[in-house]
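BUG: 3D viewer hangs when loading the predicted structure for this chain

Environment: internal workstation, default settings.
Expected: structure renders.
Actual: progress bar stalls at 90%.

Input used:
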Amino acid sequence: MPASAFSSERRRYLEEKYGLDASELNLLLDDIRAFSDETAEDFIRRRHGELQREGLRNEAIYRRLAAEANAGRFKCPSLSLRQVRRIIYG
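Structure tokens produced before the viewer hung:
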């Protein structure tokens, strides 16, 4: 749901409740939407790059990604390390 989908009354309420101006509220709502729209596959690919940039090696990354993806954020069966690798490399 885009930030503009909220009524002006609801937007005013959120701005006042959380001390945000209109542009800050738009950024927050856009971030929440992007977070909730991310699929397990998109998450795994994105996090793989982040963890590689942190200097982690792939075997450690696969275990961490499987644990993070299986922590309940996504409505999918638990992923094995092999499934994680296949999502990343096809």
